[in-house]
Design a protein that fits this description.
This protein is an alpha+beta fold. It folds into two domains: about 280 residues, Aminopeptidase; about 120 residues, Alpha-Beta Plaits, CATH 3.30.70. Helix content is about 35%, strand content about 20%. The strands form six sheets. It has a six-stranded mixed sheet, covered by helices on one side.
Length: about 450
């Protein structure tokens, strides 16, 4: 990798400027901001990286696909990333404009720096480096840039299924999310699934005076609170019957990998300003992050943003369930519907982003080669993480295309993805180019 490292060093400024230009193209799939310009720009990036590229219609925001052939009989690697980003959020909480890349203290700030433009761009730059240094790629590559990841990739599985012959590959890799909390180089073997949903409880046709109507008008906020209390017990158990149907126990190899991950629970909690852990069943932090969760994301009363002594007319809870391997979103959705119908029939239930859990076992094909590539790039043993706490639409590859799938996280732990002041440490960005090149080289050597 010495020649690749030298290539990255020589082109450092150019790479940073190109990334800044990519950040300056808004691509918010949830609102549509900039999406019409983003797909053609992604196409240009793939072509600039030596790929034969095209835009594929999905019925929603398009998929951008590029292919480059490697040596005859070499492995075929699918590289997944996404070009859509989260909404910027409150502008007053950003220290610099979200769609104008800014460099401070060795980090590039801007929406999409870490999630996911900076990480998939590092993968593309690895292809350029290998071509320029070695004269070609060590294996065949197909790059997929998804335009709907941040809204649950609702069209990805069907689109990839229609491309099954083109995507008859040997493995898939992706770079998203942060490295392990220990900041050690990381290879993720799976991700949890997700079901996002919203519960709305309605009362009167407008807010009512709490003195004149107290004990007479039903209070949607209380009704919603009572409903939520039936869904998760104080000890952390989710009490929605049937939501965990099909959960597959972790294998001994997965448990060994989890227990080998270095972590300082006290420091992790303190870093987030916490003095306690959530209620649970005694698992360590790493095991908790591989099991199902139920989270209330927000509670609001729509007609009482400023406190007034009223009975609100509408109360809303936004929630998500993270799914472990073996759970299926359709089963979870059915269980939630049955639970709400039983406990508060007039509550309205609406579902948002949905992703299935994905799993690749530690002894799956190419696992050792991917780990070796990351290890050689960093000069120290890479950690194998059985499942990331977050969610990605990787099941479209593992389940839909039967590909073993490996996550090569490149971003810093405090990248603030989805939050104001999202950022990517530039040393990690440049090291990510080397890491991606090393993985492809390792797979090509097989």
């Amino acid at each position: 990798m010495d020649s690749v490292k030298e290539y990255v060093r020589r082109h450092r400024l150019r790479h940073e400027l190109e990334l800044a230009d990519w950040i300056a193209v808004p691509s918010v799939s949830a609102t549509g901001e900039g999406m019409d310009q983003a797909a053609p720009y992604a196409l240009e990036l793939l072509e600039r990286s030596g790929l034969d590229a095209r835009i594929v219609d999905t019925g929603g925001w398009p998929l951008v696909v590029g292919h480059a052939a490697g040596p005859p009989d070499s492995p075929h690697v699918v590289i997944y990333g996404h070009y859509d980003v989260q909404p910027a959020g409150p502008p007053e909480e950003w220290h610099s404009p979200p769609f104008e890349a800014s460099i401070r203290d060795g980090r590039m700030y801007g929406r999409g720096t870490g999630d996911n433009k900076g990480q998939h761009f590092a993968q593309l730059l690895a292809l350029r480096a290998l071509r320029d240094v070695d004269g070609g790629l060590p294996c065949s590559v197909t790059v997929l840039l998804d335009g709907e990841e941040e809204i649950g990739s609702p069209n990805l599985t069907a689109t990839l299924t229609a491309m099954r012959e083109e995507l008859a590959a040997d493995l898939a890799v992706w770079s998203d999310g942060p490295v392990h909390d220990s900041y050690e180089p990381t290879v993720a073997l799976g991700v949890r699934g997700a079901v996002a949903f919203e519960i709305t409880v309605r009362g009167a046709n407008s807010a009512l005076h709490s003195g004149n109507w107290g004990n007479v008008a039903p209070n949607p906020a209380w009704e919603l609170t009572w409903l939520l209390s039936t869904m998760r017990a104080p000890d952390g158990r989710v009490t929605v019957d049937g939501y965990d149907a099909g959960v597959t126990p972790l294998t001994d190899a997965e448990l060994d990998a989890l227990r080998a991950l270095p972590i300082d629970p006290a420091a992790m909690l303190a870093g987030a300003g916490l003095d306690r852990m959530d209620a649970g069943h005694g698992q360590d932090i790493n095991e908790r992050l591989a099991t199902p969760t139920f989270t209330i994301n927000s509670l609001t009363c729509r007609d009482n943003d400023e406190h007034r002594t009223v009975i609100p007319s509408v109360a809303v809870a936004r929630c998500d369930l993270r799914l472990a391997c073996g759970q299926r979103s359709e089963t979870v959705i059915d269980a939630l519907r049955a639970h709400v119908e039983k406990h508060l029939p007039h509550a309205e239930l609406r579902f948002g982003a949905i992703m299935e859990a994905s799993r690749t076992l530690p002894d799956a094909p190419y696992a050792d080669l991917v780990l070796r590539g990351v290890t050689e790039a960093h000069g120290k043993r890479a950690l194998a993480v059985p499942a990331l706490g977050g969610s990605l639409p990787i099941a479209a590859l593992t389940d839909g295309l039967a590909l073993p799938c490996y996550g090569i996280a490149l971003a810093n732990v405090d990248e603030r993805n989805h939050a104001p002041n999202e950022n990517f440490e530039l040393e990690r960005f440049h090291q990510g180019i080397v890491t991606a090149a090393s993985v492809l080289t390792s797979v090509g050597r097989r």
